[in-house]
Amino acid sequence: MSTAVSSTVREPILDRRADFPIFEQQVRGKSLVYLDNGATTQKPQQVIDAEAKFYAEQNANIHRGVHWLSQYATDLYDQARVTVQNFLHAARPEEIVFTRGTTEGINLVAYSWGMENLKEGDEILLTELEHHSNIVPWQLVAKRTGAVIKVAPVLDSGALDLDAYYQSINERTRFVGIVHVSNALGTVNPVKEMIAAAREVGACVLVDGAQAVAHMPVDVQSLDCDFYVFSGHKIYGPTGIGVLYGKYAVLDSMVPWQGGGDMIHTVSFEESTYAPVPQRFEAGTPNIAGVVGLGAALEYVQSVGLDKIDAHEQALLHYAEAQLQQLPGLEIIGQAPGKAAVVSFLVEDIHPHDLGTILDADGVAIRAGHHCAMPLMTRLGIPGTARASFALYNDFEDVDALVASLKKAQKLFGVES
Asked: Is 17-40+305-412 CATH 3.40.640.10?
């Protein structure tokens, strides 16, 4: 991530708010201050137009029709796969599998790889930073196969205890599931080094990139991960669409996890043979419009520039942390070095859910709760946090509105700033 900037710097690096029509409206009579980007991002007009155009002018089912419209829709779908391939720097388009999102991608790997390759006594290594989506599927696999889950702990700062992680890897480690960026704390893991350590014992590695791809470049070949997953809606794309990247040889060795149309080669009542990768894992009619919208979202992000997005968000993060630290009784949770643009915090004597409700009255949208990271919250000894997460369309005025609304909440609860 970018180096820290002075908290007094207020000149915007990006000014792209006008690209997002949702900000033309008001919420409760106030300008919308949207700081819940870790949950989902807003959509630029380019993405909205691409999906609307598909339904208005290009809609047809893909891969099976001989008519012009079907072939055209198929071309759009296949072009989007190439867009994703280039975005992740994958070796070939066949390594890109379209899913409903990060959760489905991880479940696909758990079922098609984990159930087939893990056995009793094998170890699955996770971290305390993981989202529930990268915990629960592996619990199901462990229960079915007899594999054992090991967990690398975090430090009080919210950084992963890398020494403990490396020490946890041994000859029994068969699978490693690691988050690239923590959705709850913004911690950025050194995944390349972590993957290299797992490689030394021949472990398979999956990286949860849901919170990373919108904020930093990702090169899956350089990382050398077996799998990388992310969701379209967290990178300015539609909901209900996501990506599973897998090394071709690994994907080609895996069995389908869903059966139906378009994932087969031949079918009889005696047996079926399966389509090649990636169609083998895309049973039924996919979210074609969502794939088109995702392609448009990635093209939009690339046109803005991930380096500029990173610099802009880091400026907002450091400004926000500096302003928040001036509020009495406010504690920032998670201060690992090199964080992504997420700030989680607690305010003394005010429950995070109450904070979220009070801020909403001012048109300020934040997230409150455990952020689908209950084991992490348990480790930190707290039930949850309030979380503000930034995107390329946020600005310093959004941070000011957040701070002003927090001061109002403190006054309401009898805490004077």
From this structure: no
The predicted structure's pLDDT at residue 4: 41
Do you know the residue count of the chain?
Answer: 417
Q: How far apart are CA 408 and CA 173, in angstroms?
A: 51
What's residue 393's pLDDT? Answer: 98
- Round the CA-based radius of gyration of the chain to a whole number and report it: 22
The active-site residue out of 372, 374, 382, 404 is: 372
17-40+305-412 and 47-303 share one CATH topology?
no
Question: Percentage of the chain with pLDDT > 90?
Answer: 94
Q: Which two tokens mark 347?
A: 């305010």
Task: List the CATH code of the domain at 47-303.
Answer: 3.40.640.10
Q: Quick check: pTM over 0.70?
A: yes
3 pLDDT more than 50: no
Whole-number Cα distances in Å, 160 to 4, 85, 250, 310, 337: 20, 29, 28, 22, 11
Q: Respond yes or no: is residue 372 known to be catalytic.
A: yes
97 closest CA partner among 222, 252, 204, 272: 252
